[in-house]
Design a protein that fits this description.
mainly beta; Jelly Rolls; 2 domains; 2 helices; 11% helix; disordered N terminus
Length: 254
């Protein structure tokens, strides 16, 4: 191919690619890299993996959502009507995004982009940073939030991420053979597994739709709705750490 032909070909391809981000995206449930794991009244959970050197379809995020990185990653966020932005995400970093837009995520490098995405169908108000800066140019409140979280989650690595008037999100890390105690409470959290671990996680907490003595599978995105208000425990018997997102609803009303 002659040099002028290459230039023309490049212009044609750019001309074809540019209108793509002017299109309306597919629903997130129709985007093949987003695997719906759990649907509830207050959250909807997706397991997401974008392989190296690939991209998602343009897809819609109608509601607010947050995601946690599973492994470190770097990807290009191309939102419809906006310039592309390179995003570098640390393993375990939590990100909160207002809904009402369409975008695609593209991985140009050799490391896949993996995350757990949690949609929040209810309107969210007054989003606030706790230990993660999910809202730019707003202060964090990590010390006070951690003290409060440790009253509910006892004996574990606790990192409150952020909260709204409707939900509070905390990252729990259980080291090998470590146990947490879920204190007596007025409202029970939903637990969402972050990591893929071959073994099981033992719990004395009653889990919705599961028999007594149920063991949790730690697969990225697996979601468990804890029931009741009695004190209970969660134990990690594995040789590797296990992380969960704990989502509390109406956090101002314990």
């Amino acid at each position: 191919m002659k040099r002028i032909d290459i230039a023309v070909f490049g212009l044609v391809m750019c001309g074809l690619a540019a209108p793509a981000l002017a299109q309306k995206g597919v629903p997130v449930t129709s985007e093949p890299h987003h695997h719906l794991v759990y649907t509830g009244d207050k959250i909807r959970v997706f397991r997401v993996e974008v392989p190296a050197h690939s991209a998602t379809l343009i897809h819609e995020h109608v509601t607010d959502y947050f995601w946690i990185g599973v492994g470190a990653s770097e990807f290009v966020n191309a939102s419809v009507g906006k310039p592309e932005a390179l995003v570098t995400a640390a393993d375990g970093s939590v990100h909160y995004t207002r809904g009402g837009f369409s975008h695609l995520a593209r991985v140009d490098g050799a490391v896949p982009f993996r995350n757990v995405t949690v949609e929040m169908p209810e309107t969210q108000t007054n989003a606030r940073n706790l230990c993660e800066v999910v809202i730019a140019d707003q202060p964090a409140d990590c010390d006070a939030a951690t003290k409060r979280a440790r009253e509910l989650f006892i004996g574990v690595g606790v990192r409150p991420a952020f909260e709204t008037d409707q939900e509070r999100v905390t990252v729990l890390t259980l080291l090998p053979n470590e146990q947490i105690e879920l204190a007596k409470r007025k409202r029970s959290p939903v637990l969402i597994a972050v990591d893929d671990v071959a073994g099981v996680v033992h719990t004395t907490c009653p889990v919705a739709d599961q028999p007594k003595g149920f063991t949790m599978q730690s697969r990225s995105g697996n979601t468990y709705r804890v029931m009741g208000s009695a004190q209970c425990t969660i134990h990690n018997p594995n040789k590797v750490a296990v992380r969960f997102l704990a989502v509390e609803f109406s956090p101002t009303a314990r």
